[in-house]
Every structure is written in C-alpha cells, then in structure tokens.
Design brief:
The chain has about 90 residues and is an alpha+beta fold. The N and C termini lie far apart (about 40 Å).
C-alpha cells in the first residue's frame, strides 16, 4: 500500500478536531483565522517588478459563535464532542 502524503480537512472537520483538542463540550463555536498583510514590490527581475500584496495566516483557532453567525460555519460542541460519563 502506498504511503499517504497528504491529508485534507474541510473547515467543519478542522473545527471539530480543534473543539475536541481543546476539550470543549458546550457552546457553539466557529473557526477563527487571523491574517497578516503586507504590501511590496515583487517580480522575477528588476525590469519586471510590480506592486503587490502578501497575505499570510498567522493563527488558526476557535471562537464562540455570535447569535448572527452563519449556521453553516458553526458547530455545537455538545453534539460533536459530548461529555463522556465518568
């Protein structure tokens, strides 16, 4: 069997994994992505420089969803990571 080199996750799969990893068991949550932006001059050579911008993802986390958050972006921690009886 060939070695797997890539795993891909949808935003909801990633959100569920992060809810579980954070040991969260209640509330509605959504992904939080923090971006950094910068502008500069870019090109393959000095004669081919053009103004441009770079966007980077500086952090990924979860945040409690606001009441008006689109439901397609929200997961209920009680459903995806219920408390286990002790």
């Amino acid at each position: 069997m060939p070695d797997v080199e890539t795993y891909s996750f949808s935003h909801k799969e990633l959100l569920q994994l992060m809810i579980e990893a954070s040991n969260v068991h209640e509330g509605e949550w959504q992904l939080q992505v923090n971006f950094g932006f910068t502008a500069g001059n870019f090109g393959p050579s000095e004669n081919d420089v053009l103004p441009g911008a770079i966007a980077v993802i500086s952090q990924i986390g979860i945040t409690r969803a606001k009441a008006d958050a689109p439901k397609s972006l929200v997961l209920d921690a009680a459903k995806v990571n219920p408390r286990r009886p002790t």
